Amino acid sequence: MKRIISLIMILGLVVIGVATYAQSNLDAFPVGTTQMVYQITTEKMDTPQSLGFTIVSRGNDDYTVSMNIEATGTADQLRGFGFLFTGAQMSYAGGENVSYSPLQALMEQRSHLQAGNDYILPGGGSFEDITSLEIAGVQCLQGQFIDPSNADTRTTMAFSISDPVYMFPLVHVEELRDGQWVTTLRMELITYSFTPPEG
User: Fold this and answer.
1) Which of 68, 90, 136, 189 has its CB surrounded by the most CB atoms within 10 Å?
2) Residue in 168, 167, 102 with CA at minimum distance from that of residue 141
C-alpha cells in the first residue's frame, strides 16, 4: 500500500502573474545556452504545435529568453492558437480551464518527492501514481494530478529532477466523456540541449 504523505504547507497562494507551467526560475539555468522544444497537441488542432525556448545565461543575473511558437491549421483552429497564461489557470486551444495552483506546492518541494508515494495537496487534491522516467534526456518524476472539484478531468504531469526546464516536461490532460477518457491537451518536451559558453 502506498503511503500518502501530507505536505506541510507554509507556502501562500500562488503569486498572480506566475505562468502556471513554469518549473524553474531563471537563476537555476547554468551559464551558457539551454534550448528546449515542446510538442503540443490538442483535440481541436489537426497538427501539433511547436513551442521552443532558448535561455542564455551570462552570469551576474544577466539573461536572454527567447520563445518560438509554430502551428499549422485552419483560420478557425488558429483563432485559439497558443496559450493564455494567468496566475492560477491555463486556457488552451481546447477551451477548457483546469486549475493547477495546488501544484505550486509540489514545485517548491520537488526535491523531496519520491516515486511510489502519493502526496496530498492544498485544497484537497492529490498527486498520485508517481514513477521515475526520462523525457528528452531529462530525469523526471511523473504522476497524476487529481482535482476532486473536477472529477471528469485528469492530468498527468512530469517534474524535472535533473535539469532546469522552463516548463514541465509533460502535461497530459484528459476529459471523461461517455465513460471514455479523451485527450484534450498534451504538451511534451521533445528536445533538450545545453551548450556551455565558448572559452
Assistant:
1) 189
2) 168
